[in-house]
Amino acid sequence: MRGSSPILVTAALSLAVLLLALGVHLGARAHTARAIIDPNRALATLPTYLTIDDRNGNGIPDWQDELTHSGIAASTSTDSNTLATADPLTALANQVAGALYGGYLSLKQNGEYSSARAATLGTNIATNLQAPDTFVPHTVDDLTIDEDTTEARILKYRADLRVALAPMVTDDPPEIEYFASYVVTKDPSWITKLSDAAARYAAAEKNMLTVSVPKDGVPEHLRALNALGAYASTLNRMPPYMNDTFASLALLKTLNADEEDMLRSFDALAQYYVRTVATK
Q: Which long-range contacts (CB under 8 A, 24 or more apart) does 188-191 make?
C-alpha cells in the first residue's frame, strides 16, 4: 500500500481534522461531544494488515513510516525539549494517525473509498478528538465552611472572593491568542506567556481554597472552584504540546469547554449572591 495515494489521502484527512478542530474552538461557544479517543489503545487492536510490512527493515511498520513522511508523527517536546511523558496525550497523535490510516485502508480494502467518505472519516475523528481529563476535582472536605449565612457574612464572602480571584484580573488578551501567536511566529516567548497565564489561574484556584464559604453557598463555590481548576490545568498542559498538532488541537477543544463551564459556574455564583442577599 505504499506510494503517493496513501500519503496524499492521509495528509488530506489530517488537514480536515485540523480545520474542523480549529473551527470548533474559534466558532460559536458551545459544548462539543466529549468522546475521547483512547490514547492507551494498543496498536495491536488495529487491523493486522497495518503492521505486516516493514520494507526498509527499520523496525517500524510501513504504515507508520507513511505517516511520518506526511508530517503526522507525534512531537511531545517544546523548543526547550521538555517532555510530557506522564500525560496520556503523549500517545494521542499516534492513535489519531492510526485511526486515519486504518480508516483509509479499510475503505480501500472494501472498495468503498471516495472523497466524501474520506471527509466523513476525518470529520468523525475530529468530532471525537478530546484531551483525556487529568484534573482531580476538589471536594467539600477541601473547603472551610461557615455556618453563618447572614447578609453581612455573604457580603464579606464576596469581598474575600474578589481578593482571591485578583490574579485572574489583568489587561492581558485571551489565552488563545498566545497559542495563535506561537503557531504563526514560533516565538517561544508566547509559550512562556501561556505558562504565566496558567500560573495565574492556578494561583486563583489556590486562593479560592482558603476562602471561608457560607454553608448555603458551598455548591456554587465548589462548582466554580473546580471549573477554574480544570481551566488552569488544561492551560498548564498546553505548553509541552505546542508542536504536537493533534494533542494541541485536543487541548484547544478541552480548553473551549472548560472556559464555557468556568463562565457558567461563576455566573451561578453571582446568582447566589443576588438570590441570598435579596431574601435576607
A: 188/78, 188/79, 188/80, 191/78, 191/79, 191/239, 191/242
Domain ranges across the chain? 4-127, 140-279
Which of 23, 46, 12 has its CA nearest to residue 117? 12
Reading the block at residue 234, the C-alpha cell is: 488544561
pTM above 0.70, yes or no: no
180-227, pLDDT tens digit by residue?
Answer: 899 889 999 999 999 999 999 999 999 999 999 999 999 999 999 999
Three-state SS for 93? Answer: helix
The grid cell for 237 is 498542559
Contacts of 152 (CB under 8 A, 6+ apart): none
Report CA-CA distances (Å) from 167 to 111, 112, 237. 57, 55, 19
Rounded CA gap, 190 and 202, in Å? 18
CA dihedral 23, 259, 141, 221 (to 10 degrees): -140
CATH number of 140-279: 1.20.1440
- Report the alpha-carbon distance of residue 199 to residue 11 in Å, rounded: 36
